[in-house]
Specification:
The structure holds 2 protein chains of 2 kinds.
Chain A (H helix, E strand, L loop, with lengths): L1 E2 L11 H10 L5 E4 L3 H4 L14 H18 L2 E3 L11 E5 L9 H18 L3 E5 L17 H10 L9 H9 L7 E5 L9 H10 L2 E6 L6 E9 L2 E8 L6 E9 L4 E9 L5 E7 L2 H4 L2 E6 L8 E3 L9 E5 L12 H9 L5 E3 L2 H6 L4 E5 L7 H11 L3 E5 L2 H4 L14 E7 L10 E2 L19 E2 L1 E5 L5 H4 E4 L5 E8 L2 E6 L14 H13 L11 E2 L1 E5 L5 E2 L8 E2 L15 E3 L6 E3 L18 E4 L7 E2 L1 H22 L5 H14 L17 E5 L4 H21 L5 E6 L11 E5 L9 H12 L3 E5 L13 H8 L8 E3 L26 E3 L12 E4 L3 H5 L16 H20 L9 H9 L1
Parallel strand pairs in A: 4-5, 4-6, 6-7, 7-32, 15-16, 15-17, 17-18, 18-25, 34-35, 34-36, 36-37, 37-40
Antiparallel strand pairs in A: 1-3, 3-33, 8-9, 9-12, 10-11, 10-13, 13-14, 19-22, 20-21, 23-24, 24-25, 26-29, 27-28, 27-30, 30-31, 38-39
Helix pairs in contact in A: 1-3, 3-15, 4-5, 6-7, 17-21
Chain B lengths: L11 H18 L19 H11 L18 E6 L5 H12 L4 E8 L1 H5 L6 E4 L6 E4 L2 H26 L2 E6 L4 H14 L1
Parallel strand pairs in B: 1-2, 2-5
Antiparallel strand pairs in B: 3-4
Classes of the chains: A alpha/beta, B alpha/beta.
Chain lengths: 894, 193
């Protein structure tokens, strides 16, 4: 414990003086009139001491005085050590991606340093090592008084890019302050090779104190690797002495977790990986991988089309018979592929004009020529070419080699079974473990009658993915450039084998398609504009001002920076993901700064100022003293004490007391959810009052004054409609609150969620959109769709074409699917038009909030939307029948 | 006399007036003539006189005087004095001596508040007199209670001595006690002579 103002303790020796003063000053006497005073006149009390203050009261007062003196000396518990030196303090903070995981702790540590500097009366300069949002290199602020610097420290945020050690080194070299101290709040990683120089310059700048935090290493979720039927999630971390685990969630675009993989990171290993096995249909829906744990930019990998879209092209040798049912070579392929992938059919030139992952040629020989050249180029760039044999392939002229065959073929075909053959039709052997088909069950009834044969060679076995029971290859492959060629030695129809008739055929094609590389829509130097970027906590949001476009062919090499923050780039139909982890060096633990004193901020207890509680205790003691003095003078009578206590109780304001309606079931009323923001709550109340009055005037519904409700505390079942404005600092729902709201929604209640930030409202209520994501995490919100004029809500009472509130123009979202259990009533309506402000009326009946852009028409429409909403809440889909009126009339007419 | 403590139901003055009127009513019923000891007071008799006596009692302003005023009294009359008799004994003795020289005989009734007999206060108290006697600060009333009791007893014994010397009767009445007992004692004492 230390004292921030120790000179105040000098008053302690004055306490005996106080004791003496208190002792000689007796309490004031009570006054009484008394007729027999003459008898009292000559009397003297024998004992004098009781005339003075009793000793225990003296002690009480002394204790109170001591408390006041000690409190004024501003004692601080658990204060850290004193900063070395006497000059200004330089606070160096790493705010790159690795610092986001325990950012609140870091800020606490930084504030502790500021507290220490403030007590010592020293100025502080700040150096944040990551470039700021505008892309400016790190710079040291001039030494400032702590009060001025606090705002700057509070404004620091972790960035979704690495710190710039070289620029920070340069900024440090310019720092010359004699007797200065340096506090380095590092993230524990080197971030490239410049760290040694950075550390040297740091130690030269003054006496260094290094604050180190949590034991958990910063982890980097790497882009996953595509394998045949799986996605291999990988994380990188600085090697740790103990083995660790991590959990990776595979999430779809609407935020649902489709798979969960646990990664083991062995001791000392820089990487860990685990497979995520998903059916292709689900896999194509994945939009991001998230590392479970504190949200950071490094724990999110966005997946774009490269991981998803696998268009397959089909081309037959004989176009005339290709589509013949049950006999055509493409008939079975199309049915096997179309459920899980996009199938295209055209001539080769057209097919190759667009991006293609897989091309399947059914018995189409490739003679030397432009077609083969084009295909060769495509395979070399990463295409997967799957070929099926057939009579045309078998009849290939001797001497001409098809370079796009995985193996050399013997001329002609081999027939197994038949009138003139001793051999039986052959079954398929079990797949070897190295084959991508490993694990697929081979049905016994699959028989091969005819096949083309590969020329025997030494490495034929390594190229074989599937073989017949007698060992002759059935499926062979060869890698070519970045791509691959696969040959089925049978036809794609049932002529040569019954493989295409079996389920095995479908599974084999799935594995092969999954094996292919996803296509990126554009791979030229088109500049892709940033569409959505990640912030330091891994949340997608609008790109910062400094973010600029990125040429498509550079996206694979780009390193995240302020100009190119990680996120999604490009047009809506061809988003490309730039991932933070894609091109970062492997994380490496930073060695301690030479000569630095190391403190652990994670285990240090935060400082606590003892002054205020001591003062409070002194005040309590002094009030007690007052009561005792009153009692000694006989002025304290039980009745008066009770009255005073009662007054005191009444005077205590109901801080957050919800004046709960004792009997909400007696009348129909709207309700709003209390946010804790008084102004917002008052606006909600005024809005619902205005709406209730409007509804009473215009409709047969009778609403009484609205109620304030708190989910989890108030019984929500009496309210048909809850209005819920989202404030920017809204806290996530507790599990009870979420359960109460989910229960309310599942039983037919409607919640109108208002983010109040549409259109020009973004300036009034910034950040409520992301607050909604945070708040609504625990809610079971159904899939949503924009509210259209066909929806019941648009003609529940008035016919509406748009749904303005104070602001207008933004989409309003309602449940997408009709849910019969709740009478097809959407349990939640989400919008940002700030309806309560438009509905609000004040005591004099005027509207206190102007509508934007304005006009009486917008206000009226806002009220009409409110009326429709109330009607929708009260009558459900009753007006839904009106939708069918034209159809009914038409039918009647017929 | 116009004072009562929290423990007493009525003021001393009120109780004295009650006793006076009740005694007068009894005496008038017995055919006696009654008068106030006051200048220009006329003797009254008969039932109707009681009202005039009551009016005279309400009208008599000077209740604060320690001793009865000097007025000519008929010889061998009976005098009844009500009061708290807390004035110095010498003053009372002089007044009683003057009366007995007329000569009249009589009775002296000391009406006291229970607080005056018991001194039920505690702590540090500044006492103020009602009749310009000044005030006094008692640092600890509990400490002087016994001594006060002794002084009060000495006053009452002095009064009793004065009365017996002058041939007067003497009695003490506390305002928290029943007035009937005091009246009965007074009436018996007066009829005994």
């Amino acid at each position: 414990m230390i004292f921030a103002a120790p000179w105040a303790l000098l008053a302690l020796p004055a306490l005996p003086l106080l004791w003496w003063l208190l002792r000689v000053t007796p309490p004031a006497p009570r006054s009484e009139s008394f007729p027999a005073i003459r008898l009292l006149l000559g009397l003297h009390a024998r004992e004098e001491t009781p005339a003075r203050t009793p000793w225990w009261l003296l002690l009480l007062r002394m204790v109170a005085a001591t408390l006041v003196i000690v409190a004024l000396a501003q004692p601080v518990m658990d204060a850290g050590s004193i900063l070395p030196g006497s000059g200004p303090v330089l606070l160096v903070v790493d705010n790159g991606w690795a610092s986001a995981s325990d950012w609140p702790h870091r800020m606490q540590a930084a504030n502790t340093v500021l507290d220490r500097a403030e007590r010592a009366g020293r100025q502080v300069a700040l150096l944040a090592t990551a470039p700021d949002d505008a892309g400016a290199a790190p710079e040291t602020t001039p030494p400032l008084p702590v009060a001025d610097l606090r705002a700057r420290v509070a404004a620091l945020h972790p960035k979704p890019w690495p710190p710039d050690r070289a620029a920070a080194t340069k900024a440090l070299q310019a720092w010359h302050q004699p007797g200065g101290a340096v506090v380095y709040l590092g993230d524990g990683l080197t971030h490239g090779g410049d760290f040694a120089q950075f550390a040297t310059v740091l130690s030269r700048a003054g006496t260094v104190t290094e604050l180190r935090g949590g034991t958990a290493p910063a982890r980097l979720l790497l882009p996953p690797r595509n394998e045949a039927d799986r996605l291999v999630a990988r994380i990188a971390q600085a090697p740790q002495p103990a083995a660790g685990q991590a959990v990776v969630l595979a999430q779809s675009g609407d935020g649902r977790t489709l798979a969960r993989a646990t990664l083991d990171v062995p001791a000392g290993a820089p990487e860990g990986s685990a497979a995520i096995v998903l059916p292709p249909e689900l896999r194509n829906r994945l939009s991001r991988l998230v590392l479970e744990g504190p949200p950071t930019a490094a724990s999110v990998v966005l997946l774009d089309e490269r991981w998803r879209r696998r268009p397959v092209g089909l081309l037959a040798g004989d176009l005339a018979t290709a589509d013949t049912p049950f006999a055509g070579p493409l008939y079975y392929l199309r049915r096997a592929l179309s459920p899980f992938t996009e199938v295209r059919e055209a001539d080769l030139k057209t097919l190759l004009q667009r991006d293609l992952s897989v091309l399947i040629l059914a018995d189409r020989p490739l003679p030397t020529g432009t077609e083969r050249d084009a295909l060769t180029g495509w395979v070399d760039k990463g295409g997967l070419l799957i070929r099926f044999a057939g009579p045309r392939t078998a009849e290939q002229p001797v001497g001409e080699t098809d370079t796009l065959m995985p193996v050399r073929l013997l001329g002609g075909d081999r027939q197994l079974g038949g009138a003139l053959s001793w051999a039986e039709p052959a079954g398929v052997a079990q797949f070897s473990a190295s084959s991508p088909f490993a694990g697929l069950a081979v049905p016994d009834e699959v028989k091969v009658n005819r096949q083309v044969l590969a020329e025997p060679s030494a490495d034929l076995a390594t190229h074989t993915w599937a073989a017949l029971a007698d060992g002759t290859p059935l499926v062979t492959e060869a890698t070519r450039g970045a791509g691959r060629v696969v040959l089925f030695h049978v036809t794609a129809n049932a002529d040569w084998s019954n493989l295409p008739l079996s389920g095995l055929f479908v599974d084999m094609l799935r594995r092969l398609v999954a094996l292919s590389a996803g296509v990126a829509p554009i791979a030229d130097n088109t500049v892709l504009a940033p569409a959505e970027t990640l912030d330091g906590y891994g949340l997608l949001s609008t790109p910062p001002q400094a973010a600029t476009g990125l040429p498509a062919d550079e996206i694979a090499r780009a390193v995240a920076s302020p100009r190119h923050p990680p996120g999604l780039y490009g047009p809506e139909n061809g988003r490309r993901a730039l991932n933070l982890s894609a091109n970062l060096p492997a994380p490496e633990v930073a060695p301690p700064v030479p000569g630095a004193r190391i403190e652990d901020y994670a285990t240090a207890t935060p400082e606590r100022a003892l002054g205020p509680p001591l003062l409070a205790a002194a005040i309590v003691l002094l009030m007690l003293d007052l009561l005792i003095a009153l009692a000694l003078r006989g002025l304290l009578r039980p009745s008066r004490v009770a009255a005073a206590l009662l007054l005191g109780l009444l005077a205590v304001p109901g801080a957050h007391a919800l004046d709960e309606n004792p009997n909400p079931a007696l009348a129909t009323r709207l309700a709003y959810i209390v946010t804790g923001d008084n102004q917002l709550d008052a606006m909600s109340r005024a809005g619902l009052e205005g709406l209730s009055e409007y509804v009473n005037r215009r409709t047969a519904a009778t609403l009484v004054e609205p109620d304030a409700v708190e989910p989890g505390k108030t019984d929500l079942s009496f309210y048909p409609l809850l209005y819920w404005p989202i404030s920017a600092d809204a806290q996530p729902l507790s599990s009870e609150q979420a359960a109460a709201l989910n229960d309310y929604m599942s039983r037919g209640g409607i919640i109108l969620i208002d983010t109040r930030d549409s259109g020009s409202g973004a300036g009034f209520a910034p950040g409520t959109g992301s607050a909604l994501q945070r708040v609504a995490r625990g809610l079971e919100i159904p899939p949503l769709a924009p509210l259209t004029t066909e929806h019941v809500l648009a003609h529940a009472f008035y016919l509406l074409r748009d749904f303005p509130g104070r602001h207008t123009g933004d989409l309003v979202w309602v449940q997408r699917d009709q849910d019969r259990t709740n009478d097809s009533v959407s349990p939640v309506i989400i919008g940002g038009n700030d309806w309560a402000a438009a509905w609000a009326v004040d005591e004099s009946g005027r509207n206190p909030y102007a509508v934007i852009p304005g006009g009486a028409r917008q206000r009226t429409l806002a009220y009409r939307f409110g009326v429709n909403l109330v009607m929708y809440a009260l009558t459900g889909n009753y007006k839904g029948d009106q939708v069918h009126v034209p159809a009914i009339l038409q039918r009647l007419g017929q | 006399m116009r004072w009562r403590s929290r423990a007493a139901p009525v003021e001393k003055c009120e109780r004295a007036g009650l006793l006076l009127l009740a005694l007068a009513a009894l005496l008038l019923r017995g055919g006696e003539r009654v008068t106030m000891i006051a200048p220009e007071a006329r003797p009254i008799s008969g039932r109707a006189g009681l009202d005039r006596l009551a009016e005279a009692l309400v009208g008599s302003a000077d209740m604060d005087a320690g001793v009865p005023p000097r007025v000519p009294l008929p010889r061998h009359a009976r005098v009844v004095l009500f009061g708290d008799f807390l004035s110095p004994l010498e003053e009372i003795q002089a007044a009683v001596g003057r009366l007995s020289a007329v000569p009249v005989s009589g009775y002296l009734m000391q009406v006291l508040d229970p607080a005056e007999t018991d001194l039920p206060y505690s702590g540090r108290i500044r006492f103020r007199g009602l009749e310009r006697e000044g005030d006094t600060l008692i640092p600890r009333v509990e400490g002087v209670r016994d001594e006060y009791g002794r002084k009060l007893k000495a006053q009452q014994e002095g009064l009793a001595a004065i009365c017996s010397a002058a041939g007067f009767g003497f009695a003490i009445h506390r305002t928290d006690h029943s007035p009937e007992a005091a009246l009965l004692g007074l009436y018996t004492a007066l009829t005994a002579r």
